[in-house]
Design goal:
Mean pLDDT of chain B: 89
Low-confidence stretches of chain A: none
Oligomer: heterodimer
Order of helices and strands of chain A: EHEHE
Number of helices of chain B: 6
Distance between the termini of chain B: 40 Å
CATH topology of chain A: Mth169, Chain: A
Number of domains of chain A: 1
Helix content of chain A: 25-40%
Order of helices and strands of chain B: EHEEHEHEEEEHEEEHH
CATH class of chain A: Alpha Beta
Number of helices of chain A: 2
Strand content of chain A: 25-35%
Largest sheet of chain B: 9 strands, mixed
Structural class of chain B: alpha/beta
Distance between the termini of chain A: 16 Å
Low-confidence stretches of chain B: 224-252
CATH class of chain B: Alpha Beta
Radius of gyration of chain A: 16 Å
Largest interface: A-B, 11 and 20 residues
Mean pLDDT of chain A: 93
CATH topology of chain B: Rossmann fold
CATH superfamily of chain B: Class I glutamine amidotransferase (GATase) domain
Number of strands of chain A: 3
Number of domains of chain B: 1
CATH architecture of chain B: 3-Layer(aba) Sandwich
Number of strands of chain B: 11
Radius of gyration of chain B: 16 Å
Helix content of chain B: 10-25%
Chain lengths: 87, 252
C-alpha cells in the first residue's frame, strides 16, 4: 500500500520559539488582532510504501525519532492517509 | 606522541583550514578526515570544525551525524580520545549524542558575528586544562543557531558535575545558564560555539584561543590524560579578571 504522509515538527512546550514570538508581535501592527500562541515549525511530506497502516506508522515514528525531529527540542505529529497522490 | 590531530571535513565545512593552521602553529600535525571515510586514521585527537555541514539541512548537524566518519569519532570518544567540536562541530556532536542538549536559533533571531568575552568555568576538560578558572577570553562567535538548551535534569547534571566549562559574560544568544561550552562525563569530548581558532594570531584581533587549543593539543599528546585523571590544578595568579584582559576589552 502507498501512503501519503505528513510530518509536522514543532518545538516542545517550554522551548523558546523566537520565530513564533516575532510573528505574533508583528500581527497587531498589520491590523490582525486576536491572534495568540503563534508557533513556527516544519512540515515534511512524503509517500511511503508499506504493508499496512500499522507498519507505515511504526516506520515513520522511528524515522521521526532518529532523524526528522530532535527530541531534545522538538516533537513530531504524523498524519497518514492511504491512496497517495502521484507527484 | 606526535600530536596528530584529525580535522573532520563534511561537505559544507568551512573552518577546517583555520583549525588546522592554528593547531599546526602550535606544533600539531593536522590530518584531514573526509566525512565519507569511517576512520580517524589513528589520530591522537579529533576536531569537528565549524561551517554548514551538509548545508545545515533539516537541522544543523542532523545529517552530518550519519556520515560514516562519525561512527569512528564516536568510538574514538568512547575510548577516551580528545574530541573538540567548534560551532557547527558542537551542533554535530549534540546531534550525534556525544554531548547532551541542543542548539536552537538565537534569541532575537539574528545571525551573530562578533567577538565576545567568555569566562572559563572549569579547568577539568581537555580544552581548558591549562586555563585558570575565572579567566576571561575574547573569542569570536559566528552563528545563527548557538542558543544552547537542554532538559532541566540535564542542566542540573551539567552544573553538579562541573561540566559547564565556558560561559558568556554577556549572554549574546539566549543560551540557558549562559552556556558557551560543555564537556562529556569523561571530560574528553568538548563543544563550544565560540571559535578559538579565529583568535590564534595577533593579526586576528585576539590570541585568547591559543590557551584552549594548547590545552587540547596537550591532551592529544597524552601529557594530560582525559577522564577522571584531570584534576583542578593549583590556581596560578589569574591571567585576567572580570575586568577583562586587554584583548577582551577590544571585544565590542
Amino acid at each position: 500500500m502507498r501512503f501519503d504522509v505528513l510530518v509536522e515538527i514543532r518545538l516542545r512546550p517550554g522551548i523558546a520559539d523566537p520565530q513564533g514570538a516575532t510573528i505574533e508581535r508583528a500581527l497587531p501592527a498589520l491590523g490582525f488582532d486576536g491572534f495568540s500562541h503563534v508557533g513556527v515549525g516544519k512540515a515534511i511530506r512524503f509517500n511511503l510504501d508499506a504493508a499496512d497502516e500499522m507498519a507505515a506508522r511504526t516506520s515513520v515514528d522511528e524515522l521521526c525519532q532518529r532523524f526528522l525531529a530532535n527530541p531534545v527540542i522538538e516533537e513530531a505529529e504524523v498524519s497518514l492517509s492511504p491512496g497517495a497522490t502521484t507527484l | 606522541m606526535s600530536g596528530r590531530v584529525g580535522v573532520v571535513v563534511f561537505p559544507g565545512s568551512n573552518c577546517e583550514r583555520d583549525a588546522a593552521k592554528a593547531l599546526a602553529t602550535l606544533g600539531a600535525e593536522p590530518e584531514v578526515l573526509w566525512h565519507a571515510d569511517a576512520t580517524v586514521k589513528g589520530c591522537d585527537a579529533v576536531v569537528v570544525p565549524g561551517g554548514f555541514a551538509h548545508g545545515d539541512y533539516l537541522r544543523p548537524g542532523a545529517i552530518a551525524r550519519f556520515s560514516p566518519v562519525m561512527s569512528a569519532v564516536a568510538a574514538f570518544a568512547d575510548a577516551g580520545g580528545p574530541v573538540l567540536g567548534i560551532c557547527n562541530g558542537f551542533q554535530v556532536l549534540t546531534e550525534a549524542g556525544l554531548l547532551p542538549g541542543a542548539l536552537q536559533k538565537n534569541r532575537g533571531l539574528k545571525f551573530l558575528c562578533t567577538t565576545v568575552p567568555v569566562r572559563v568555568e572549569s579547568v577539568r576538560s581537555v580544552l581548558t586544562s591549562q586555563v585558570p578558572r575565572g579567566t576571561i577570553l575574547a573569542l569570536p562567535i559566528n552563528h545563527f543557531e548557538g542558543n544552547y538548551t537542554c532538559a532541566p535534569s540535564t542542566l542540573r547534571e551539567l552544573q553538579a558535575d562541573d561540566r559547564i566549562i565556558l560561559r558568556y559574560v554577556d549572554n549574546p544568544n539566549g543560551s540557558i545558564d549562559d552556556i558557551a561550552g560543555i564537556c562529556s562525563p569523561g571530560r574528553n569530548v568538548v563543544g563550544l560555539m565560540p571559535h578559538p581558532e579565529r583568535a590564534s594570531e595577533p593579526l586576528l584581533g585576539s590570541v585568547d584561543g591559543v590557551v584552549l587549543l594548547a590545552s587540547f593539543l596537550d591532551a592529544a599528546r597524552g601529557s594530560s590524560p582525559p577522564g577522571d585523571q584531570l584534576r583542578e590544578r593549583e590556581m596560578p595568579a589569574r591571567l585576567s579578571t572580570e575586568a577583562g584582559t586587554p584583548s577582551s576589552r577590544q571585544a565590542s
